[in-house]
Amino acid sequence: MPVTTIKKKRLIKLLGKDIGDEELVELLSNIKVEAEILDEENMQIEVTPDRLDLLISEGIARELKGVLGLEKGFPKYKIRKTNIKLILDGEIKFIRPYIAVAAIYGYYIDKYTLEELLQFQEKLNISMGRDRRKIAIGFYDLDKLNSNIILYRAEEPAKIKYTPLGYDRELTADEILELTDKGRKYAHLVRCFSKYPHLVTDKNQTLSMPPILNSEDTKVEESTRNLFIDITGTDKYTVEKTLDLIATTLAENAEYIGLISMVDGNEVYCTPKLEPIITEVGLEYIRNNLGMQNLTQENIISLLESLRHKVEIVNDQALKVISPPYRYDILHPIDIVEDVAIAIGYENLKPEVPRIFTIGKELKKTKYLRKLREIMIGLGFQEILTFTLSSSSMLEGMLGLERIKHVEILNPISPLYDTIRTSIIPNIIMFLKANQHEDHPVKVFEVGDTVVVVKGKPQTRTKLAAGVLSYKVGFEDIQAVLYSLADNLGLNMKLEEVKTAPKLFIKGRTAKIIVEGEERGIIGELNPRFLLEEIGIEYPIALFEVDVTDLWEKH
Amino acid sequence: MLTANERKVLEALKNLKRARLEVIEDNTSIPRSTLMSVIESLKSKKAIIVHINKVEFIEPTDEGSKRAIEGLPERVIVEKVYRAGGRVKLEKIKDLAGLSEKEIAIGLGWIRRKKWGKIVSRTLKSRILTREGKVKEVTIRETELIVDSIPSKTVTEETLEKIVKVGSLRLDTLTNAEHNAVSELLSRNLVRKKVYEEVEVEITSEGLKLLLEEKEYITAITHDIIKKKEWLIKEIKPYNIKAMPPRLYPGKKHFYLEFIDMIREILLSMGFEEAEGPIIEVELWNFDVLFQPQDHPAREIHDTFRLKFPNRMKVDENIALKVKEVHERGGKAGSRGWRYKWSIDVAERLILRTQTTSVSVRFLAKRKEPPIKMFTIGKVYRPDTIDAKHLPEFHQLDGIIMDKELNFRNLLGILQEFFRKLGIEKVKFKPSYFPFTEPSVEGYIWHPRVGWVETFGAGMFRPEVLEVLDVKYPTAAWGIGVDRVAMIIMGIDDIRDLYSQSISYLRNRRVLWG
């Protein structure tokens, strides 16, 4: 979830009402913002990914004004046409095809505002922008531009040359990608093209090389009064909607939003589009989904207005909800239902256990495994619980690879956890190793899932493994346990000799377990050489493992 | 007056005079747990003297085990540098060797000490263009590591490998060279010392005397003694009833699995039906059916384990088609959709499931007749590094209810009821966001020991999800982090204790949460 830091004083000033820390944190928790007071000045906030407009004081203040009843309904902002023009070059369509721009006039920037604004930009770049791949945002000081005509074009890297943000000399495009931090971090987004995106005035003043780095020349500073904003990206819808979100949010603290003419070949249009989100929703739909039959049309309208929607009455059964442009999280009437619930306050929704008559039923597997576990416990074994994540080198080392294939994880956190176990035997052995100096005998078992790959497909197998480590223990000791288990479960089981014993076991003291005519496991005494030299265990171990998958279906 | 076991031990010691516990165990076949109390009793009778010797062992630390496999930092660095041509700038080493800053510093320190390479600085002149357009000469200092050859394996490395392989080494069996190596390993925190106690028992003259005297009493009553009425002639020896008996360890359920069994019982008592699903899942069921867009950050490799082998599996075409429609344009659900190009290639990728909600939706794809109350408890996986709060695998409980007239308040009611049955009286609901539910809620439970703790996410399945599954009625869904709830209720602060590798931890836990 996106996290940012905002200035408490700024928020209070924008809100126009003083609120104590504790009350503020509680209020915010009711509008999907998790806040934590860091110190006198700063507050850390975590927002849900559907409400990125709440990542800056302007957006939070706007929402709180509604909740507190200071200002309800559709937020007001002024819009004016400007004489700024942005021309799209045809070739850019193959590189980073979409752009939308806006101007914000009378946005007075001080030190605190600048800090918040830059964080807002960065957090949107990461979350909405999928780390600039999908969209990237640039802010510029509008008054520093040397022309009203701006070009968005594809340019040969050698021809792009400007002083990047934070530098004191001009660099070429390739130098920027090699020498600057941002350049190195985001080079992969443009390197694969022969030309790079370039935002530049017709008088050759570079604004930026999207999505990498802005120019020092057009930098936003504490003295900035008017902003120019660009969003470039690979997804038209996200580019336009994010611009709507930014423009309408900053407009809370500005004089007006400036519209900019976009010239794309023969097509001419303006951005930002500032399209409200319109949803028609039935009153019954809201009432039924919340289980609140007594909500009146009037109630619902007032609740929605407190979350800044404009509501028109279609008839006595339906409403037309006009949501501000930054609310493009609303995809369906159900999202309006949630806003009604939030406006009511979750703490005011009375939980009610539904009267639905059903009969509880556990899985046959659960029941079977419980019986099996009870028998093992009756035989004096301690149940253990270990990881299903395992190490392929350990599985291969202990069990060999001849017959059983394991899955391979593409991005393991460590070589110790790069697969899912195919057997519980290694877990039993490692557990016994860790406890070899404890009181003997150590008798343990585990029942759990394993995964083997059969004909290229992963298959879950449920297995039981049990082992005994003691000063003196042998094949017969564990064999007695297995037979007792099989008898009590009513399984038709026998042991058969193995032709070649896995190196884990002693030849002549290991056997295949055959259940209902099917090979389902192995039993044996562990080989001392293997124990001492490869694992580091100084005491004898006898163990067995049996695959119990689907045996519950036979009962 | 000796018990049968005491007699056995003394008889063995009569020949051995002084012996280690293991030897006595072997000679008498008395299990260790019983033997300890026999020894105690003999000691109180002054029949034996117990000598306790401390034996020092060396064991690897976690870091040591890792380093034995991956190599010590200095070795990793010299090998990489040698392979990269034998000459690398210091600041490039981090990327090259794949080590942390701290490990690089340690590695370079040892390279210098072991003279495995040379660190050479030189100054270079370079010309740059200033802001004013003048050419200016600046000096740049460059430091490089030079490696001429790959050094052969040191005793330190061999010793570390040996210790890791064998698990622990007795300190008094080491050679001189190994001793030095162990000092270095100890100072580098790659191994640690552990002291075990070795018990030796010696028979006293009093003990020998007891052995001779003991003839006239009945110690153990046997079948023969009863039948032959020996108890009429001989006295039955009294026991020291205050002596401690041998310690017994019953077979027990694992305490955490017992907790999970209890959760299952609660849900069964509330009328829920249990289900299960595969832990290796296609993204379709883990994400796409749940209306999670394909470029959602949770689907990236930082948050989801993906499989390299096998890496994909065919999915149900019918479902895939509906998912595509719903993601791209909202389908027939009256939604706007996510408006992007959906790809079946992504949906067919295999992953370790990140949530058990995949089981809930798989269940609904097959069963659509109301009413339904279903739950599942199973392992889920996330690429988190292991610490007191995080594990890469943990348990999740998912539940759904579907009925003709189900509403959001019913969901809150069921959750509150579930926690009440678990003994949690206070539950708090806050608005939240999940791509697959609306309205969505996150829940906190209150416990006097820890206060409010976030433990679950819930909501009503979105119409986009229900459309794909062809479900006609409202469906409430929730997911609860079972490990966290168990920790709160059982008073456990470190999540790793739920999967403890220590038998004594498991043996010593009380059966009811203690």
Secondary-structure map:
The complex is a heterodimer of chains A (555) and B (514).
Chain A: E1 3-7, H1 8-15, H2 21-29, E2 33-37, E3 42-47, H3 57-67, E4 79-88, E5 98-105, H4 111-126, E6 135-141, E7 149-155, E8 161-162, E9 171-172, H5 173-179, H6 181-186, E10 196-201, E11 206-209, E12 213-214, E13 227-233, H7 236-250, E14 256-264, E15 267-271, E16 277-282, H8 283-290, H9 297-306, E17 310-315, E18 318-323, H10 333-344, H11 364-378, E19 382-383, E20 389-390, H12 392-399, E21 408-409, E22 419-420, H13 425-434, E23 442-454, E24 457-469, H14 475-489, E25 493-497, E26 505-515, E27 518-526, H15 528-535, E28 541-547
Parallel strand pairs in A: 4-7, 4-14, 19-23
Antiparallel strand pairs in A: 1-3, 2-3, 5-13, 5-14, 6-13, 7-10, 8-9, 10-11, 11-12, 14-15, 16-18, 17-18, 20-22, 23-24, 24-28, 25-26, 26-27, 27-28
Helix pairs in contact in A: 1-3, 8-10, 9-10, 11-14
Chain B: H1 4-16, E1 18-20, H2 21-28, H3 32-44, E2 48-60, H4 62-70, H5 73-83, E3 87-89, H6 90-97, H7 101-114, E4 118-129, E5 135-146, H8 155-166, E6 169-170, H9 176-187, E7 191-203, H10 205-213, E8 217-218, H11 223-227, E9 235-236, H12 255-269, E10 273-274, E11 280-282, H13 283-288, E12 307-309, H14 317-329, H15 344-347, E13 350-352, H16 357-366, E14 372-381, E15 393-402, H17 408-421, E16 427-431, E17 437-447, E18 451-461, H18 463-469, E19 475-481, H19 482-490, H20 503-508
Parallel strand pairs in B: 8-9, 10-14
Antiparallel strand pairs in B: 1-7, 2-6, 2-7, 3-5, 4-5, 11-13, 14-15, 15-19, 16-17, 17-18, 18-19
Helix pairs in contact in B: 4-8, 5-7, 8-9, 14-18
